[in-house]
Amino acid sequence: MAEADGNRTRLTEILGHVGFEDREGHQAPLRLRPRTLRGSAAAREPTYPAGMTAVAQRRLTSYAHGGGCACKIPPGELESVVAGLVRAPVSDPAGELLVGLEDGDDGAAVQIRDGVALIATADFFTPVVDDPYDWGRIAAANALSDVYAMGGRPVVAVNLLCWPRELLPMELAAEVLRGGSDVAGQAGCHVAGGHSVDDPEPKYGMAVTGIADPSHLLRNDAGVAGVPLSLTKPLGIGMLNSRHKATGEVSTEAIAAMTTLNGAAAEAALAAGVRCATDVTGFGLLGHLLKLARASGVSAVIDAAAVPYLEGAREALADGYVSGGTRRNLDWVRSQLQSAVDEDELLLLADAQTSGGLLVAGEIPGAPVVGELVVRGDALITVR
Fold first, then answer.
1. Residue closest to 192 by CA, chosen among 180, 174, 204
2. CB contact at 8 A, 123 and 140
3. Which of 69, 71, 162, 276 is catalytic?
4. pLDDT in tens, 82-103
């Protein structure tokens, strides 16, 4: 155990925490043994390779300062960083840039010939669950979602892996990559290599290239007043992930939601003639809706009672499992928000999702209508 103890000490020095402590302000209760919450997917124990050292058998989420898309740089800070960037002149471009940095869309779009646009995106994050295979599946589904949110079809992806090679065995990394490869395969997307970095904190995701019809892109600046808003996955993923990180309790409903691809939802949106959509991830429903409304020159109304939530999400909120990312999301939108609901309801609406669903300006089968776009008013978002 001397080697494991040494690694544990080194981990403390690097990340500033040990055991089940969460920098977002949570401490695990005395019942530290993971248990499974009710849900729709089959539960299983984390797939740790045989022969792993004792330190490596610690919960994977304990090696990260946060989890999933809640680790994003806050939207306000990010916008201030990129605000001064201007599009540099491009010599003899291979195609026309259709969607770039201007409105913070889900991916970039470049028309390379008549009827074909390339969609490019990248997404990666720290462990959001303890099972390495599931983490890989979730991270891949999340990265692929950006292509779907633009109305595209993923074609090829490359892995992005940051790994503490002196703390965690590479066999564990292989499980993460296997999960990503399996989900990409379900999406009909090739995985061809990638890039890795020795990093004190594990991170995984993908850079994905897809194709789309340039005349049928889903964009966040194409919303018009009078159109309903539909949501294709329930919220609450962030609350349940915060509980999982702090206590080890597994929500199989959350895992099932995070590993569900948004491809079918995107196809349904395109078939319905929708032209405006975004996916709901780290900035929460309110944060991503604010970007959509602002880019489209409209305001939005959300019917809080119509928004669906995963089982256990409200209980997790009541128990205090709210990430710092969620609170920062709400702080960011507050100046553009009018609300008739209480703070807890707003926190749920701002909950930092990982691999969430699509927010669609239009109606599609099976997705509840949660609000509508309206003529631009004093507030960008009204919650009633």
1. 180
2. no
3. 69
4. 777 767 788 889 899 998 877 6
